[in-house]
Amino acid sequence: MPLDPLPPPSPRGKVASTKHCCLSTEPCPIRLSDVGKRFHSFPKGTFKARFSPPIIPRYVLHYFASHPPVWTWMTKDGPNKGKSFQVPTVPIVCEKTAPRAVRWLVVVFHSFKTHLNLVAIDAETGKVRQGWLRLYQNNLCVHLQSQLKVVPPPSPPAKPQLPTPRPPGKAPVEAHPTTANSQIAALQAEISALRESFYKYIASHETCCHRSNSPSNASSEADSKQGSTSSPPPPQFSLQRVNSDGSPAAVANHPSWLVAALRTPDIPNRFTGNLTYTSPLSLSPFPENIIEVVKLKFGGASPFYLGISLSRHLAVATIAERGMVTKTFNLPPDPSVPKARC
């Protein structure tokens, strides 16, 4: 009678786990212990256009290299009750007194909503759904950690060098009196030569100025200066007026004060290119995503501030943080300047 075949041997060693594949219809569920471990793909149709991680400035990287962003939590039940653990994360809220690097990262996190389609926004509350919010927080944490690996750690402060102690029993060697006298004499001779050269320069300069004050020389110099200098080209920009819901609005003419401000030659580069603004423009507190502000003053009117967000949207306000104001412009009077809301 034949014997039964032997069963196959049990696998030994580490069993290879299946490769993770992100879902195409909904965001992957991310647990607390999985934050910052791997990059997850967003579902199809999440963004209005192609989205890429933000470019993190060097001062932000230097700050988080010495202050790693972590979230500390404590277990309440189980065998690890009372123990605290640290989980990597990125800050999403902060106070106005927080460091500049933390405030920059919070503003970038909240500007994420402007790139989303309606599939990622709750129709009842108007907020980003929790699944997409956690997925973006995880990806931003992974992106920040990868950038921190490239930045070298800050160098420690240099230690002051202490003077070498003198061996006991040996007195310091003093300069010979004749050597000191010869050095003083050499310095006095050098000062006399410099004084004589200075007097000669003053005399030659007065002669040149007397010749340049003549009418013929003045007119020739003015013509040469006028031909050599040319006004810088005006900044290039295009304005798009939108409604409060984000839809384009038909407009015949843009506000004259806004066009005059954007045509200023010294306007920062962020205020050029394709720009949008909400109709009508009225003075109200700035939103959280403003990244640069300029101060405007039209004649005798009260000054106000013009700000621009990461999505290149313009806004005006009566007050602004001092650290965000980059330039101040004094412009001619204009009756179309915005008024404060009552």
Could you report the average pLDDT, rounded to the nearest whole number?
A: 77
Provide the low-confidence segments as ranges: none
- Elements, N to C (H/E): HEEHHHHEHEEEEE
Terminal-residue CA separation? 102 Å
Counting DSSP E segments of at least 2 residues, the number of strands comes to 8
**Shape, per Cα inertia axes:** flat
**Alpha-carbon Rg, integer:** 34 Å
Care to describe what's here?
This protein is an alpha/beta fold. It is built from six helices and eight strands. It has a six-stranded mixed beta sheet with strand order 3-4-7-6-5-8, with helices on one face. Strand 5 (290-298) and strand 6 (304-309) form a beta hairpin. Helix 1 packs across helix 2 (100-110). The radius of gyration is 34 Å and the shape is flat. The mean pLDDT is 77.
Task: Give a brief outline of the structure.
The chain is of the alpha/beta class.
